[in-house]
Structure formats: C-alpha cells, structure tokens
Amino acid sequence: MNYHDINFSYTYFDNEGDGDNQNKDGDGNGDNKDGDNTPKTYTPEQVDAILQDEKTKFQTERTKMLGQLEEIQKTSTLNEQQRQELEEQVTALREASMTTEERAKAALERKEQDYSERVVGIEAERDTWKTRYTQTKINNALLSAANNNELKPFHSGDIVNALASGTRLKEQVDELGKKTGEFDVVVRFDDIDADGKTTSVEMDPGQVVARMSKMTRWSHLFQSNKTSGSSGSVSSTGEEVDLGELARKDPKKFLELTAKQPELLN
After folding, report:
1. Model pLDDT for residues 201-232, shown as the tens digit of each residue
2. Based on the number of CB atoms within 10 Å of its own CB, is 169 exposed (0-12), middle (13-18) or buried (19 or more)?
3. 140-149 pLDDT tens trace
C-alpha cells in the first residue's frame, strides 16, 4: 500500500468569537451556526503537490545551510579538530541531499580516493628508501675503491666525485639469466683501447680506479703515476710505456706514438 491509497483528511474548527458558539446551558452542544466541522479531504495529486512543496522548502534550507558551512570552511581559522567536525557536518548535509545511488557512488569515490592516497604515500616512502639505499651502496663502493693505498690517490673524494654520475646499481643474474635480487655497483667509464680510441665500458669501481691510475687524463689524482721521462711514460691507452725500449724494438711504433703524444718526450 502506498500513500495514494490513504484518505488524508484535515479538520479545521472556527474558534473565533470568544466562546459564543458554546452552549450557554453547559450541555456542550452549541448551535455552531457559522462553524463547519466537515473533514476536508485531498486528492492524491494535491497530496503530491503538498509533499513536493515541503520537500522543496526543506532542500532549499539545507542547501543554504550547506553553503554557509562551506563558506566557513574557506574563511575561518579552525584547529584540526574543529576542521574535522565541520567536514563531517558538510559531508552529512551533502549526502542527505543525495539519492541512495548517489550516496553509494560518493562512498565508493571516497574509498577510491583514500586508497589512491595510501598508494601514493607508500610509493613515495618506497622511492625514498630506494634512493637512500642506492646512494649509500654506490658511495661506499666508490670510497672503498678510491681508498687504495697501493694506487696512492691524493684525495679519495675527488675520485668519487669524478665517477659518481656514471655509477649505478646493476642487478645480478644467475646462469639461466634470471635476476637474483642482488645488486652490483658498476661504473660507466670512458676507456681507451689498444688503437687509442675512446670506448665506453662498464666495470667494477676497483677496476675503474686502477685504470684511472695508469691514464694521463687522471694522473693528477694519483701520487704514483709517471707522466714524463723516456724511461717510463703513460700513453693515451693508459699503459706505462718504456720509450727507450720501444724505440729500440719498434722504431715505427715509437714514432707513431710520440707523434700522437709529443708530451711523452717532455
């Protein structure tokens, strides 16, 4: 049964006249000549119109109140607790104006937003720790390689700074090519091949520092390099060369080398 099946009636009594309609003999049966006690009935359409009108008035007031609360949110200085309480009131008013489907949709959207915010927070924290781990592992590996007493570097920090930008973590793989979850520190380094050409290679930091100690380009970083003299010079390939011995055994190669690197003769 819905409200259309119900006979709504409202009765109005005329109480004006200061009791003139009361029976003066006290029998309670006044003549009520001007009164009409007949119940007033409404059609379903009229009931619909009344209910819709009341609903519209209520929604208008609720919308007005919601606007006032939202304005307070924007302009007032509130502490955290007050802000949270106000947000709850605003949310309740918004949801009260929604249909069942709209409330369900809004609840789902809030859950999705909360989930997305948690994911963003977790990812940010993960990336922070990943960056710290990477930097720490790389710095330790470069410092360990630079602090090689046999190579006698002047300042290990200079070597670390020179190599840091080309250093990364490379994940290890097993014999089947499957990643193991373990990482090695590798340095991309511009080496010089046997033909004197620059070639980019990836090597262990210790290997890179050892190569640097034999190359003219990096000789200023090490105490042990021999950078001049006919008995022991460093060629562009990074190898120590005994120019006197080379001149005796291979004059042609000696001439080619000294033509390319005349500073070796200084």
Report:
1. 999 999 999 998 888 788 888 885 444 443 44
2. middle
3. 999 999 998 8
